[in-house]
Predict the structure.
Amino acid sequence: MSARITINLAADGTFEMHLNAEGRDLLARKLLSLSEKNDHIHLAPNGMGEVEVSKRPYRTDDKVLEWGRSCSGRMHGTRCTIRTSWSDRLVKCSGHIV
């Protein structure tokens, strides 16, 4: 089965990330490969980023988030930015990966 990662906002505004087993493994591999020199990955549809995300929602009222970047390193801390388009920044999240 191919990797599937869907990032969305639910109808109530809750941020969600849905992953099948292959998508989970791919995202974990990419995040663990981050270093001081290679400090971020891009999430995008249709092979436009290092991690491909699905444009297909799980529920009809989900708002799928198609573009994102995850950063890690001393300069950035750990954070990600998710967008519906290059100009529309919707969600910022920060914290530690445990």
